[in-house]
């Protein structure tokens, strides 16, 4: 079918009505030229992985920049943002902006007096604590999430729920929190952390009593006689495998070799 021309042209000025459902979409479309300009600017260098230069990560009105060579990248970034603001009316609240170092070679002096807060202890982005070195990111998020889940399950233990209802609580209220952590932090997570999660699940299912059914039987699908509870470790592996498959799609053999080694270990 042929595309029909628009019957009416909509003119959008500098703002939309409050609570307008189209506002986030319009803002995303308006911000995309800035993101494209940052990615295409050769003087703004990011972190190269899998032959891709990671520079800008956008989510709604939050922008996360991962830059290298700050003495070169930061001045060109500031000029690009200034030009974009001049033409589009876009403004950044620099006093709410934060910066951290991903290694020991970057210092606040490299920011060229940009009025951003330097966080040596790390910063929080989309609910995830980010800090340096990268290996310590899980320690800043995993134990806190485990405590939150335990507190929630302890508070819900005395609710008049059946065994099936408790399984649904784990699926609907707890698993999304874990899935967000797995998707946001593609790092190695200690096995003992998953053991603690499974213990909390078992105690909640049995109302704090000693489990009578093994965890392996509880995760069996319901159509095969199990309870259909979630295998958290399997979800963790699936998130990481999906990333590997996306990045190594041109290297299928090495991908399957790596996965087989992970399962063997």
TrEMBL record:
Residues 1-130 form the Reverse transcriptase domain. It comes from the Eukaryota. This is Reverse transcriptase domain-containing protein. It comes from Seriola dumerili (Greater amberjack).
């Amino acid at each position: 079918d042929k595309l029909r021309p628009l019957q009416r042209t909509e003119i959008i000025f500098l703002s939309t009505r409050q609570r307008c459902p189209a506002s986030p979409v319009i803002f995303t479309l308006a911000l995309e030229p800035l993101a494209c300009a940052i990615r295409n600017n050769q003087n703004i260098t990011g972190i190269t992985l899998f032959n891709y230069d990671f520079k800008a990560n956008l989510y709604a009105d939050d922008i996360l920049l991962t830059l290298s060579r700050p003495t070169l990248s930061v001045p060109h970034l500031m000029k690009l943002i200034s030009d974009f603001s001049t033409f589009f009316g876009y403004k950044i609240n620099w006093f709410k902006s934060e910066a951290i170092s991903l290694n020991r070679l970057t210092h606040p002096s490299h920011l060229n007096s940009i009025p951003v807060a330097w966080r040596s202890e790390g910063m929080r982005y989309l609910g995830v604590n980010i800090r340096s070195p990268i290996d310590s990111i899980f320690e800043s998020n995993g134990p806190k999430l485990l405590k939150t889940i335990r507190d929630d399950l302890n508070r819900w233990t005395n609710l008049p729920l059946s065994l099936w209802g408790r399984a649904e609580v784990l699926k609907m209220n707890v698993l999304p929190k874990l899935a967000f952590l797995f998707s946001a932090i593609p790092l190695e997570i200690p096995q003992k952390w998953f053991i603690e999660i499974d213990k909390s699940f078992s105690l909640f299912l049995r109302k704090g009593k000693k489990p009578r059914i093994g965890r392996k039987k509880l995760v069996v699908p319901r159509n095969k006689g199990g309870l259909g509870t979630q295998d958290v470790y399997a979800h963790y592996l699936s998130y990481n495998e999906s990333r590997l498959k996306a990045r190594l799609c041109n290297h299928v053999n090495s991908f399957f070799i790596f996965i087989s080694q992970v399962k063997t270990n």
